[in-house]
Specification:
Elements lengths: L1 H62 L13 E2 L8 E3 L10 E8 L5 E2 L8 E7 L11 E3 L14 E8 L10 E7 L8 H11 L4 H5 L3 H9 L1 H4 L1 H11 L13
Parallel strand pairs: 1-4
Antiparallel strand pairs: 2-3, 3-5, 6-7, 7-8
Helix pairs in contact: 2-6
Amino acid sequence: GKMAAMRSVRRFCGVALFLSQLYVLSGRAGSLMTTKHSQPQSTFAKSLTSTSTNTPYFKASESTEIPPYVTKCPSNGLCSRLPPDCMTCNTNYSCIYGKPATFDCKVKPHVHCVDVNNHEQENFTINMTCQFCWQLPTADYVCTNSTNCMTVSCPRQRYNATCTVRDHIHCLGNRVFPKMLYCNWTGGYKWSTALALSITLGGFGADRFYLGQWREGLGKLFSFGGLGIWTLIDVLLIGVGYVGPADGSLYI
């Protein structure tokens, strides 16, 4: 009985020793595996760091792309003739309104221009009138039109317009600004045509029909031009522009 017990204990110890060795080996193998895996990870990390260090290079290559404003900037022309979008200027708000002022300017990147002696330059000066963009004369900016307001009304109606300064004009402040403008749109009616119809066929109401004023036209037609008096009055009213198109637009 004792021998059998001793054998069973030895077997148990042998199995326990075998299991412990197996566990140690598996641990080493695992550590080997992790070290093997860690090598590609480290190389991958290195590749990541290398690409991250190369990102400025990629950014630099992206920055060499031509900015959109360059298309507006004529190359190798006079710097002082460049559109305002092609330069950055030091704003001199201490200038006297309405008086000539000098501004120090610098060309934007990728813009090439020359001075009077045909030498390329970056820094230059510009002479312009000291005033904000919204104070410019109406000929110096372009505004959006409105087709839903009446022009022939008392008082005259206004509408909100968005105005943009013309490319060759320099001014202070925002180059795009809102402005309240008088309604000033046309429906395609000609003043000369209306006047000619009023003189020739005004007795039949042709001038009023042409302008879209059907009621007045029918009134003139059936009253034989108000016995001629209405016809003469309409010639005068259309001649001075008092009577206009029925839709409220202006003559061409």
